[in-house]
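Good day; I would like, with your permission, to put a structural problem before you. What I wish to show you is a protein chain and, alongside it, a tokenised description of its three-dimensional fold. I would ask you to consider whether the tokens describe a fold that such a sequence might reasonably adopt. You will find the record immediately after this paragraph:
***
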Amino acid sequence: MNSQDVILGLLMHHSLSGYDIKHKMETVLSYFNNASFGTIYPTLSKMEKDGLITKESVIQEGRPNKNLYSITEEGQHQFKKYMYSPVEDNEFKSDAMTRLFFGEFVEAHIMVGVLEEFLKRTKANLEKLRQLYVDCQHEMSPTQEICIQIGINNSESKIHTLTQGITRLKNVEQK
């Protein structure tokens, strides 16, 4: 899976601007995928050159023109090829988890701080996912709803484990 696959999937429903694509990556896809404008626009440019999408410039009054991207028949074929390909292993990177893994090399209170920050961010992410679920549930497909539910359940589990870990490290620190 790469940014091209995600963008093609987003365009399967209707045309979108680069901004719309970025917005979807920051909201409905945020739990399991992300991309910056620095990734999105070069990918769109390459996809257009490869004939997977087309670009239409829409003139807007009082604002810069907007480029709308639409998937071509070749793009639909490419997306279907991705959807029928074998599922790749998940890639998970986490700065907090890396620090936690090497936590033995710093004082316990430093790691408590790392875990507390991780917990705070996880709680914020959980609330974002819950709100997204409430706001978008009526327009989600069953498979999209499952994605959000997985994100909510994983976040709840992570909060539970982080809370226990903080207590454990605080106990180690007191000894």
